[in-house]
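Budget justification aside, the reviewers requested a transparent look at the raw inputs and outputs of the sequence design task funded under Objective 1. We therefore reproduce one unedited record. The lines immediately below are the C-alpha cells for a 600-residue chain.
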C-alpha cells in the first residue's frame, strides 16, 4: 500500500485517563478483533497491567480502516508505557510516529505526565490531536479542561475532540482527525535501509524479536541485518506486522511498523533507539536519539530460603529476556547470604520485577533498601560509581560525593502549595518556579536529590494533597553533596544490609531513630546486644537490647551469701563467652527499618 494511506500514531496520557480503553474502541471500530475476542485492556497482556490500570510494555498493533469515501487506510497504533520510569521508551515510541492522540480526563484535567509526554511529542515534532475523554460523566469539567489543554499546547478550541472511550462517543471524530491531521510517512524506499528499534520481546522458539519502524529503504527475508551500536549481523528469516499476533509479510517498506526475526538469542543485542541497516547496502548514519538505558535505583534481592538461590537466578534470567533494562549481578551479604544486586529504571520498575518474581516463579524474597547510584571522586582524581553503601571507599580517600538530582514537576490545586513546599524543603529541594495552568491549578518546579524521593516522597505528596497532586521528573545532573556513610553495628559487627548514605544534616537524627527502631525489632538474646550507629570510626548513637535473665539462685535456700555469688559469677562468665561466639539473627522487619524511619 502507498505510504499516502498509512498513519503511524500513539496515544499519550497520564495514568488512568483512559488510554487502554480508547485503544480498545479503535480496535473494535476497525473490526481488528471479533466481538467474541474483545475484552477490557486488550493491549495490556500482563495481569499486573490489568490490576493496576497501567501500561508497562509497549504493544504495537496494525488496524485496517475503511473511510466514508471507501478508501482503505492502514493505522499503526504504537501503545506506550505511561509511567515516569519508562520515559526513554516512551520517547522512542514517539519517535516512531508522525502523530499522537493527547488524551486528558474530563474530571482530573491536565496532570504531570500529560505535560511531560506533550513536551516529548513536541520535541519529536509530532502532530498532536487533543482529546477530552470521559465527557459523559456527571463530574466532567469539559470547559475548564479545554482551557487547560489550550494553555498547554497552544491549540484552538475547535481542534479539541470531546469523547468517551467507554461509551464510544466521539470515536468517529477521532478517526477523522487521525486521517486528516496526521501526515503520512514519507516514501523513502529507494534509500539504504534505516529502521529504528522501539521495543522488543523474547520468544522461546523464535528468539529475541525487535519491534521496528522503517524510515528508509526496504527489508525482507534473505537480507542480512546489521546493528549500528554493536556492529553485529543477523540473517533475516521473517518480517511482518502486528495484528495482536505476528502476521508474516513479504517485506517492510519505508513507513511500515513491524517486526523482524533473525535467530537473535541475546535480547541485550536489541537496544531501544538503535538503528538497523543491511550488510549489502548499508546506511552511513544512524537515526538520531539513541542513548544507553542506565538503571537509576538499586536494591538487593535475596531468597528467604537459601536453597532457592538457583531458582532466583533462573527467574531473573527469564525476566531479563523480556526486559533488557533489568541489570543484576551476584552479591553476598553477611546478614542475608547469597543474592543479587539489581538495577532498575525506577521504583515502579523495581516493584513490578519483585512482584513478578514472587507471582510467576513462586519465590519468597527479602529486599534490601533501595538506593541510587553515586559518583565518588577520590583524592587521586579518579571517579568510581557506587550503587550500594557497602562499596563506598573509606572516608580518607574521598574528595567529593556526587548524587543524582532530578528536575521535578508537581501539578496541584493551589490550596496545597504550602504543604508541598514544606515537603520539598525537608527533602533538600531547591525551588525553581511556579506556573498557574488555571486560576486553581498550579505547576511547581523543583530540583530534588533522587535519593530523597525514592522512598516515600510520592506517598507523602498524595497524602498532603488528598490524592490530587501528580508528579513527574527526569534526571538532570550529578551534584556534589555533603554526604556521609552511616553504618549500623549489631553486636559489634557491621550489618551491610542496613548501611545507608545520608546528608550530614540528617545523619545524627537517622542514626538515633534507626537504633531506637532496631531495639524494638531485634529479638532478645541470652546476652546484651548493643546496637550502634557510626560514621567512619565515630559512634554517634547507641541502644541496647537487654539480655533475657535467668534466676540461677532460685533454688538457693538459706546458707552463706558466697553460694549465690559463685552462681552469679559463673553465669556472668557464661554470658561473656556466649556473647563472643553468639550470632544475632536479624529479621526482615529490621531490614525494612530504614524505610520506616523515613516515613515517620
Amino acid at each position: 500500500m502507498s505510504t499516502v494511506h498509512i498513519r503511524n500514531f500513539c496515544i499519550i496520557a497520564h495514568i488512568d485517563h483512559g488510554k487502554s480503553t480508547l485503544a480498545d474502541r479503535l480496535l473494535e471500530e476497525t473490526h481488528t478483533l471479533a466481538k467474541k475476542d474483545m475484552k477490557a485492556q486488550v493491549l495490556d497482556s500482563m495481569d499486573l497491567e490489568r490490576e493496576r490500570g497501567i501500561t508497562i510494555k509497549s504493544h504495537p498493533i496494525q488496524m485496517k480502516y475503511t473511510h466514508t469515501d471507501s478508501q482503505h487506510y492502514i493505522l499503526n497504533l504504537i501503545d506506550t508505557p505511561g509511567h515516569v520510569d519508562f520515559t526513554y521508551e516512551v520517547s522512542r515510541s514517539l519517535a516512531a510516529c508522525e502523530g499522537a492522540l493527547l488524551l486528558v480526563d474530563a474530571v482530573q484535567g491536565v496532570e504531570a505526565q500529560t505535560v511531560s509526554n506533550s513536551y516529548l511529542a513536541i520535541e519529536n515534532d509530532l502532530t498532536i490531536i487533543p482529546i477530552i475523554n470521559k465527557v459523559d460523566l456527571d463530574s466532567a469539567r469539559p470547559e475548564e479542561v479545554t482551557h487547560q489543554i489550550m494553555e498547554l499546547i497552544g491549540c484552538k478550541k475547535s481542534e479539541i475532540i470531546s469523547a468517551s472511550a467507554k461509551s464510544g462517543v466521539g470515536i468517529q471524530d477521532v478517526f477523522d482527525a487521525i486521517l486528516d491531521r496526521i501526515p503520512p510517512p514519507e516514501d523513502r524506499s529507494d534509500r539504504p535501509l534505516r529502521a529504528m528499534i522501539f521495543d522488543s520481546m523474547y520468544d522461546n522458539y523464535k528468539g529475541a524479536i525487535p519491534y521496528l519502524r522503517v524510515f528508509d529503504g526496504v527489508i525482507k527475508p534473505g537480507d542480512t541485518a546489521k546493528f549500528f551500536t554493536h556492529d553485529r549481523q543477523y540473517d533475516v528469516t521473517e518480517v511482518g506486522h502486528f495484528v495482536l499476533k505476528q502476521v508474516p509479510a513479504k517485506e517492510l517498506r519505508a513507513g511500515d511498523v513491524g517486526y523482524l526475526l533473525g535467530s537473535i538469542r541475546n535480547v541485550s543485542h536489541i537496544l531501544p533507539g538503535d538503528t538497523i541497516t543491511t550488510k549489502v547496502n548499508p546506511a552511513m548514519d544512524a537515526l538520531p536519539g539513541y542513548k544507553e538505558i542506565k538503571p537509576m535505583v538499586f536494591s538487593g534481592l535475596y531468597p528467604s530460603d537459601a536453597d532457592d538461590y538457583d531458582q532466583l537466578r533462573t527467574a531473573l534470567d527469564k525476566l531479563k529476556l523480556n526486559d533488557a533494562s533489568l541489570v543484576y549481578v551476584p552479591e553476598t551479604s553477611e546478614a542475608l547470604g547469597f543474592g543479587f544486586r539489581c538495577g532498575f529504571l525506577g521504583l515502579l520498575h523495581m516493584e513490578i520485577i519483585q512482584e513478578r518474581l514472587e507471582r510467576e516463579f513462586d519465590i519468597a524474597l527479602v529486599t534490601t533498601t533501595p538506593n541510587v547510584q553515586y559518583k565518588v571522586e577520590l583524592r587521586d582524581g579518579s571517579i568510581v560509581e557506587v550503587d550500594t553503601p557497602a562499596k563506598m571507599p573509606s572516608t580518607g580517600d574521598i574528595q567529593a560525593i556526587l548524587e543524582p538530582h532530578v528536575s521535578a514537576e508537581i501539578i496541584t490545586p493551589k490550596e496545597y502549595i504550602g504543604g508541598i513546599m514544606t515537603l520539598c524543603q525537608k527533602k533538600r529541594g531547591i525551588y525553581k518556579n511556579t506556573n498557574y495552568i488555571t486560576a486553581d491549578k498550579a505547576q511547581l518546579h523543583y530540583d530534588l536529590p533522587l535519593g530523597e524521593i525514592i522512598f516515600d516522597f510520592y506517598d507523602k505528596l498524595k497524602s498532603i494533597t488528598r490524592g490530587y497532586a501528580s508528579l513527574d521528573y527526569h534526571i538532570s545532573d550529578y551534584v556534589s553533596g555533603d554526604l556521609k556513610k552511616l553504618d549500623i553495628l549489631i553486636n559489634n559487627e557491621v550489618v551491610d544490609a542496613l548501611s545507608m548514605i545520608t546528608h550530614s544534616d540528617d545523619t545524627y537524627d537517622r542514626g538515633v531513630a534507626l537504633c531506637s527502631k532496631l531495639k524494638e525489632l531485634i529479638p532478645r538474646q541470652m546476652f546484651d546486644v548493643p546496637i550502634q550507629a557510626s560514621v567512619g570510626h565515630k559512634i554517634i548513637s547507641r541502644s541496647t537490647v537487654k539480655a533475657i535473665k535467668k534466676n540461677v539462685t532460685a533454688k538457693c535456700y538459706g546458707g552463706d551469701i558466697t553460694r549465690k555469688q559463685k552462681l552469679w559469677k559463673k553465669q556472668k562468665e557464661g554470658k561473656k563467652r556466649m556473647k563472643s561466639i553468639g550470632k544475632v539473627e536479624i529479621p526482615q522487619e529490621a531490614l525494612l527499618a530504614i524505610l520506616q524511619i523515613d516515613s515517620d
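The first helix runs from residue 19 to 29. The radius of gyration is 29 Å. Computational costs for records of this kind are itemized in the attached budget.
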